[in-house]
């Protein structure tokens, strides 16, 4: 495995910035789609970080129970609908499928799965309130 890029680079950069000793107060970081993986999130939990980020569905360890056949056709799914699956081995890690204009898959650790509302624009430019999980707030509120 190449130690210069990918998840190893995330761990290396966080250790350089925050040190090796886990903090008593956990920090939350947003991880890019390219870096998000189950193994990285487990390592970040050990280091004292909660994380949230979009994940590629082909990643090793990704929960396949999140798939719903009706979500392949976004026209039949309401915006803001979501499905949340909790990992049985690590109860603070969740896989989330949230539908905006298309299904988006996320991996989140240590976050609340309660719902809040966010304003999104449709193709015509009209604003609509849709529901999304609290753990996606750093991503969807922009």
From TrEMBL:
The keyword Transmembrane applies. The chain crosses the membrane at residues 42-62. It comes from Phytophthora nicotianae P1569. Keywords: Membrane, Transmembrane, Transmembrane helix. This is PiggyBac transposable element-derived protein domain-containing protein.
